[in-house]
Amino acid sequence: MDTASRDEARFEDFTGLIAAINKEVTRIKSVESAKLGLTGADIMCLYYLGKHPQGMTGAELARAASVTRAAVSRTLARMEREGFVEVQAEQGATTRYRAAVVLTERGRKSAQGADIAITRVLDEVYAAQSDEEREQMYASLRSVLGRLRMISREDR
What we know:
Layout: H1 3-35, H2 40-51, H3 58-65, H4 69-81, E1 85-88, E2 100-103, H5 105-126, H6 131-154
Antiparallel strand pairs: 1-2
Helix pairs in contact: 2-5, 3-4
């Protein structure tokens, strides 16, 4: 195989596998969240807020879930209207982005349902690998992500 063909195959393998994994994770989030009457974005907010009972700001949620602040803001506004979360406005706060968002009782129950679904999916995925293989995979993915972040910042 010549260099150009090898580079094409590497590019297609790399981007294809990453895109396919992301697509399947998105599909699973959609299916599992629909079973709970939620969206994939709801699941991510419930997950992180469930891990932070003291609350998180919209900006913190956006960073944790790797989505835009605008997307989190829309999701939180709807979840607040539907009674899943409560925004705890602080005295003198000039923006809701800085206010802590906490789960309501309804939100905590939904977060528990989300945790059960997440655990079930992860158990199935993890059954395909040994602990050592999984740790090696995560180390490789962290390394790739680090290099990609470095490259993306060099190009600015």
